[in-house]
Amino acid sequence: MNIYRLTCWLGLMSVIFTVPVAAQIASDGSIPTSVRSPDGLNFTIDSGAVFGNNLFHSFREFSIPTKGSAFFNNGANIQNIFSRVTGGNISHIDGVLRANGGANLFLLNPAGILFGQNAKLNIGGSFLGTTANSIRFADRVEFSATNPTATPLLSMNVPVGLQMGENPGTITVQNSGHRLNQNILTPLDFQNNAVGLRVTSGNSLILVGGNLNLDGGLLNVESGQIELGSASSGTINFNLSGKTWSFDYNNIQQFGEIKFSQQALVDGSGAPSGSIHLQGKNISLNEGSIVALSNLGNSRSGNITIHASESLELRKVGTYGFPNPRVTLDNLGNGVMGDILVSARELLLQDGGAIISRNFNGEVGGNIYVNTRNFILIEGFSAINTTLPSGIDSFNYNVGRGGNIWVDTKQLTLQNGGAIPSVAFGSGTGGDIQINAPDLLELGGENPLNFTPTGIGMSSFRGNTGQLTINTSRLIVRDGANVSAATQSPGNAGNLTIDATSSIEVSGVGAISGQPSKISAGATVLTPTFQQIFGLPPFPTGNTGDLIIKTPQLQISNGGIVGVSHEGVGNAGNLQINANSILLDRAGTIAAATNSGEGGSMNLQTNTLLARNGSSVTATAGGSGNGGNMTIASAIVVGLENSDITANALQGNGGNIQITTQGIFLSADSNITASSQLGISGNVSISNLNLQPENLVFLPANTLLSQAPVIASSCLNQRNTQQGRFVVTGNGGLSETPDTLLMSYEVTQVKPVGRLGTTRNRSPETTNSRQPNRLMQEATGWAVTPDGKVALINNQSQPNSPENLTCSS
């Protein structure tokens, strides 16, 4: 009895707890598809419906268990295999998908598709996995997974599109992530990666669904095409006639998310490399994930194209130690590399995230085009390798040319070590950089761990650099950031051209390094460590490029620098600034400096040049070089509180200073000098602008220049000895009365004189044909009239006695 009861109880339990195992792959009966599996692990799929070169299958369920397989046993004449899943369950594929010959395989499941770590593709053609509702054909027939009984069901035409539903399922690809090498100076090595999803060389791997997740997923097509699309509510048209399938998303109403994580990899490298296209709403490459093309061939390779209707984001270091997420092109062959094309509303590069083009051996590296409708933020550096900044980078390692960088956005912000560099590591030429930011371009700060400045710049470690061009409304360079075109080698640096339609502000120093904020074109000496790593000479010998600036307002303050320089044995470039006003404050500097070569020339065209609080305009030579020449054309030149204009040299000759102005106002501790300690001093020449009657300021007679001697004892030092030479040339100055045309004055050299009021060594008087004996008082100040004009005035509140006028006063 007990045994009987136990037997009955066991039987009951077996009924209760035995769950029937659903078939992994089962036909839905709408098409005569045959499914056989002797072990419940490996499945063979026969029959189906054949129309021309197209084979159709329809399944209620379609999943492949771990280490299992699904074999489509198609005929040799089949070109396309179309399979749909109508049961409403996700397809879990953790085994091998197989097909005969070179047939393309289409897998359609609106509920979703998940590829596990063991998923593999063993087919001769291309693969398209989608969560669309249906596949459309040229004769308007739809092969639908949501309405399988619709007629006609099948077509012998070519497929032309995907009909996306309002809420398509997610496609997920899981794997162990890539194991690529980390060195930015060497090509990527793909040999240590797991296989992942891969089709044969030259074919296409397409995943189009709702959201796409690559959780350590690995996608690879040698010399082929990879298409990742996240879309809903509309039709995606495609063309399969060419070698590269093209996809058109113009009719899509809504895009979704594409997320890379856990060092996911999408790779289309080959000889030549293929192409990669990502289309979605928000696209993120996280945790060391990579989109890569490496060209190994001699012909032109494909492009990496990324379209995000909202944002593209690269951030976070890799889960398995890779230092940063990247979108990267490597040209290792002799052909022309394809380009990186990015369009988004917003672009965020953080934690070392980078868009990179590298030319190792080819004729030309790939270009980078970045276009955002709103803003770009480039911030920080890799936490694993602090020498890797977030950025948009172009590197040339050989004799060819590096790729160009074009950035178009409303607002571009770089901070905390972020960078946009173009570097010529090899003997070839670096690529150009062009930045167009109509609203604002702002650079701030530095890498706090290695003191590398936030920057946009070109650099040469052997060859020549390209050209750097910036167009913006407002440019801000602060807290140690740099905009530069530089050489550290025998190669020459290109020009740096900036057009800021509103203003340029350069201010401050690095919070930790104390290095100044700069806009510069120069040749710099790197540390011995860097010289050893890159095989650089102790001193650069290439020439620097020119720095050309155009803006209404240029403000340089708190130690900021704008200038050209050469720390080696080459020539400094030229500095040209065209601005309505130039303001230097608190040690702000405009400089053209050299060490052993020729000093760069400086040309400043402005209405007002104001230097305060220890600021300077300087064209100097620190070693055996000659000081540069300086030309300043400014209506007003003001130097206050120990601010200087100098063109000095140490061993070489001092430069020449030519100033054309309506008025110069210098405090007693400010200087204009062109000297040399061991060479020949230069000359300082000052000319008056030619004022026209309509530019004159009509003020009451008692506030205009009064009738006193023109020249005070301003050329004498405190010991009444001559300390310099002051020359006035040209046809200029104020007319005798506001309504009288300018008259020609005789040029007179002023010799040393005693104090005014004595007759000792008095200089010859300058005469005028209308009033030969008329004398004028020295102007003691300047004022701005209500209509914005500048007038030289004599302050009647000050003593008029010329006996009290000295250099110090």
Overall average pLDDT: 83
Q: Give the termini separation.
A: 128 Å
Q: Any low-confidence stretches, pLDDT <50, length ≥5? A: 1-22, 691-775, 797-809
| Total DSSP helices | 2
Query: How are the strands of the biggest sheet laid out side by side?
Result: 18-21-25-27-29-31-33-36-39-41-43-45-47-49-51-54
Helix/strand/pairing class, anyone? Answer: mainly beta
Helix content: under 10%
Radius of gyration from CA coordinates? 37 Å
Proportion of residues in β-strands: 35-45%
Largest sheet: 16 strands, parallel
Quick one: overall form? elongated
Per DSSP E runs of 2 or more residues, the count of β-strands stands at 58
Characterise the protein shown here.
The protein has 809 residues and is mainly beta. The protein is built from two helices and 58 strands. Strands 18-21-25-27-29-31-33-36-39-41-43-45-47-49-51-54 form a 16-stranded parallel sheet, with no helix packed on it.
SSE layout and pairing:
Blueprint: H1 2-17, E1 25-27, E2 33-36, E3 42-47, E4 49-51, E5 54-62, E6 69-72, E7 80-85, E8 91-93, E9 96-99, E10 104-108, E11 113-115, E12 120-122, E13 127-130, E14 134-137, E15 142-144, E16 159-164, E17 171-174, E18 197-199, E19 204-209, E20 212-215, E21 218-221, E22 225-239, E23 246-255, E24 257-261, E25 265-267, E26 275-286, E27 290-295, E28 304-315, E29 326-331, E30 340-350, E31 354-359, E32 368-379, E33 391-396, E34 405-408, E35 411-415, E36 419-424, E37 433-437, E38 440-444, E39 455-460, E40 468-478, E41 482-487, E42 496-507, E43 518-523, H2 528-534, E44 547-557, E45 561-566, E46 575-585, E47 589-594, E48 602-611, E49 616-618, E50 630-639, E51 644-646, E52 657-661, E53 663-666, E54 672-673, E55 684-688, E56 728-729, E57 781-784, E58 790-793
Parallel strand pairs: 3-6, 5-7, 6-9, 7-10, 8-11, 9-12, 10-13, 11-17, 13-19, 17-20, 18-21, 19-22, 20-24, 21-25, 22-26, 24-26, 25-27, 26-28, 27-29, 28-30, 29-31, 30-32, 31-33, 32-34, 32-35, 33-36, 34-37, 35-38, 36-39, 37-40, 38-40, 39-41, 40-42, 41-43, 42-44, 43-45, 44-46, 45-47, 46-48, 47-49, ...
Antiparallel strand pairs: 1-5, 2-3, 4-5, 14-15, 14-16, 16-22, 22-23, 57-58
